[in-house]
Amino acid sequence: MSNAADTPVLSARGLRKEYGKGEGLVRAVDGVDLDVSAGETVAIMGPSGCGKSTLLHLLGGLDRPSGGEVRLNDRRIDNISEKALARMRRTDVSYVFQSFHLMEELTAVENVELSALLAGRPPRAARRRAEELLKQVGLAGRARFLPSALSGGQRQRVAVARALSNEPLVVLADEPTGNLDSAATLDVLQLFKDLRDSGQTLIMVTHDARIAATADRKFSMRDGALMDETWPTGGTTGQLGTLVRLED
Amino acid sequence: MGRILLVTRLATRDLRRRRTEATLLLLAILAATTTLTLGLVLRDAAGDPYQSTRAATEGPDVVVTAGQAIDPAGLAELDKLATAPGVTAHSGPYPVIAGKLEASGRTSDVQVEGRDATVAAVDQPQVTQGSWVSDGGVVLEAAFADSLEVGVGDSVTLGGRSFKVVGAAVTAAMPPYPGASCIVSAGCINGAIPKDRDLPAGLLHNPGLAWLTQADVRSLASDRSSLSYVMNLKLADPDEAEAFVDRTGGDHGGAMPMQAWQSILADATDLAKDSQILLLIGAWLLGLLAVASLSVLVGGRMADQHRRVGLLKAVGGTPSLVAAVLLVEYLLVAVVAAAAGLTIGSLTAPLLTESSAGLVGSAGTASPTWSTIGLVTAVALGVAVVATAVPAVRAARASTASALADAARPPRRTGWLIALSARLPVPLLLALRVAARRPRRVVLGVISIAVTVSGSYVLLVLNAFLGDQPGTGAYTEAQVAVLRHVLLVWTVILLSLAAVNAIVITWATVLDNRHASALARALGATPQETAVALATAQVLPAFLGAVLGVFPGGWALFAAINTITGGDSDRATLPASWQLIALVLATVLVVAALTSVPARLGGRRPVAATL
């Protein structure tokens, strides 16, 4: 399905995820092939329950496939140990979740530095990097705030900063604007555009046509399979300014 | 009425739906109620054989002794007592002589009482083996014979003369060996004697009791003045015995010591009292552990029942109704635990009393008194209410909307601990943060372990003390065995409940941290690191609890036991430093082992499904 000329940083072949048996068998992901090149932004769209989030979990090693394979930097990750997967998540893959998943008892800066600490970075270096990232996402003044004191958009920006903490190869975002109001959505859209511009590889699962429009490629997913692939070429899609106009 | 039915129905349905948790709750309270029942029933259970012996031997209400060198006028005074107001029957005065008994290569102090071969109206010892006294034949008090391992047909030496053992008998006129009361004027001392102390000449140490014919006793006496006398009185009203002793003994200025049957009963049940004290202390410790268990279990269940509370309130349940439903659940469990504890405690108490050979009959199945039933039930209900009241009221007051949304209770933030943990390796970093999220649970974990280790400290002291006893004579080997049984029961229940607590606390932590653990794994923590963190979050409080359990916990508990029992702490051997270090390390290792399984399960929960 990919036209990418470069060696893909992340690829899937015949990826399947099944639940249940016999008549109760459900194919959440059904034979997905996907290649994502370095620096590319890919959006996957589809209705609720079509298997978008499951696909994202399989691509990031959060879940094990029933069949097929996933490669990260040409190394298979679908059959490696839990420990190796954990190590991979420290440095190579990171997540942005729809419901942010911030630790409620940690401040914004403590949440952001957590990934670096888990990766064994020295505490001071982890804190410095976290503060830089919060500055990048426009939350330098809120670094010592608990998540409960932040708005939805601010929480998602903290989550994005956390995802970038270890400079991952790929960021996987699961409905990153699903829990946000319009203003916050625009904030996050801008952030994702900045990520794309900086060359960060990004795979997003979303309902939101506006955020999908920021992607280099867009897939539609239905009943566990990728149906269509769209290559935005500019014009009225893929441009943030246009998105703002869409909002109007 | 409808409201009561509704509350009961909701409570019972929920208990049936969560059987494992209900069973754990039941076990936690049951351990405390059983031990408490054992402690309370024990005295009554041990008192029964004495009463049986008293009935079977026409036991005296008052025993009067008269000293050596008593003149004819003194004997006349004894005779006067036999006709004192309130006295309905008597036996004696019988001559008594102090001496040494040699048997089976052992020598023991003995009080030898001269009796008639015929049956006495008061205090006719009941022969349990062989026959009653005859010339040249000695009858030994049954517990004494048992201790000397002497039986009918053996020979013993008394005052340099050989006598054939013709029988063993029990009496209610004196506590069984080695607690015998003194009926010779030379004086007696019971219990342990410090090695550096010499007894005054002639003083008997842990004397046994033997019966000969009066003629044989008199023939053993070097002269008439070496004899003492004992007389047994039966009163019209046995309950007045102590008053009779106060009244009549006072008239004689203490020259003729008297002992009321109530006092003999108290001495005869000394062992049971010691067992009872041990069990009651154990029961209170277990009560504390039960509160800790319940608090964790209830806290975990309340978090789980948040949505149910919301539903109840959404359909019109008032906060008081919600609180009532939650409280009734635990009160029902407490009532069942109280009933089961009373039954098990009553049935097993006789196994721990093992009425000594010095009394007839067995403790049997002593029925708990109303006060025992009331106290045990009150403790069970109290434990349930203390552990449940706060979470129940908190749940009842929760906002209906947030309860319906099943919003989790936000974790606590402990800033300094979070900052400190950032400098530690990943498992410790996560462990400290897991612990910091629920400080109340950590405190409960610390208390639980501290209580267990305090109990273990006291067990070490008591075990060492009992190990020394057969040599000192304060307890016979059989009695030491009984007390060791009591300690064993105490230990097994205490450690079992502590183990259940450790597992329950860990599991509650696992459930409470499932989201945080999944998130940590999504951010790169390995399953092993997450599992180690969950286990370490229990081990760190366990270490603190173990240290506090040794000091001040164990030390304070032992001091409290000494204060309650009037014991002499100088006689006890405190645990050596290496024992205390081993105790702390063993505690930490056991907690680590117990928590590793639930922690491992928690660390391996699927991340995607949890998030």
UniProtKB/TrEMBL annotation, chain A:
Keywords: ATP-binding, Nucleotide-binding, Transport
Transmembrane feature ranges: none
Domain ABC transporter, first and last residues per copy: 10-248
One example GO MF annotation: ATP binding
PROSITE patterns, A to Z: ABC_TRANSPORTER_1, ABC_TRANSPORTER_2
InterPro entries for this protein: AAA+_ATPase, ABC_transporter-like_ATP-bd, ABC_transporter-like_CS, ABC_transpr_LolD-like, MacB-like_ATP-bd, P-loop_NTPase
SMART domains (alphabetical): AAA
UniProt keyword ATP-binding, yes or no: yes
PANTHER family named among the record's database cross-references: ABC TRANSPORTER RELATED, IMPORT ATP-BINDING PROTEIN
Protein name from the UniProt record: ABC transporter ATP-binding protein
Species per Swiss-Prot/TrEMBL record: Microtetraspora glauca
